[in-house]
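Design review, sub-item: ligand-bound model
Attendees: FS, YL, KQ
YL presented the inputs for the pyridoxal-5'-phosphate complex:
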Amino acid sequence: MTSPSTRLALHGGPKTIAQPFVRYNPLGPEEVAAAKAVIESGVLSQFLGRWGADFYGGPKVREFERACAEYFGVKRAITVNSWTSGLVAAVGALGIEPGDEVIVSPWTMCASATAILHWNAIPVFADIEPDTFCLDPKSVEANITPHTRAIMAVDICGHSANLDALRAIADRHGLRIISDSAQAPGAMYKGRYAGTLADIGGYSLNYHKHIHTGEGGILVTNDEDLAERLCLIRNHAEAVVADKGVTDLTNMIGHNFRLG
Ligand SMILES: Cc1ncc(COP(=O)(O)O)c(C=O)c1O
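KQ shared the predicted structure:
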């Protein structure tokens, strides 16, 4: 008979860790002081859903975006109220239309695929690599059809997808790349931050992530035109296009994706 000490806790043995973990509080005096200053200013959000200076949000939002752009080494960082919103904005900004196909990893959180469905496009699941659990470039290429418009790479569990191989495929077939790097802020791929090698990438700022704002997300891109389209989808594009002089109206139905 097995002695109690060699039995797994699952099977009635003693627990290896008997004490509950002390909850880690990621918010300290610096965050409390910053939040207090904002509350005392009386302004919790300075976005306006019309064309003008406040279309891009207030000074705190812009300061945070500048800091993120500097950290990730990209031209533009754009905040959103969740990374789910960020993914919807990213697919929209690329001009993905009904019936278009976007190849995506099946080993991910549901929002990677539902962001594609949001625009009535079709998520096509390619296989993943056994060592990284990220998209397998060979499987991606095998799933390309005349309807394929983009690849959504998911940098799962802090591991970057093979962006060089995916970029080579994208270039061969005229496709765009989105990186869902929700779980990989700070992960590196060949000396650059995961998420920054795609046409549009980004990270979740949800409470359970490494860096958080409670709920939120941050989009990153080096393409100024895409950055503007992301800002439009974030903030009621349809109410702004005329005054902003937007001529490409594809997917210019906006939302309130603003981070307060
Ligand atoms: C891979 C992946 N994509 C998208 C999301 C959605 O992010 P959010 O919870 O900020 O909407 C998550 C969140 O867990 C995620 O892990």
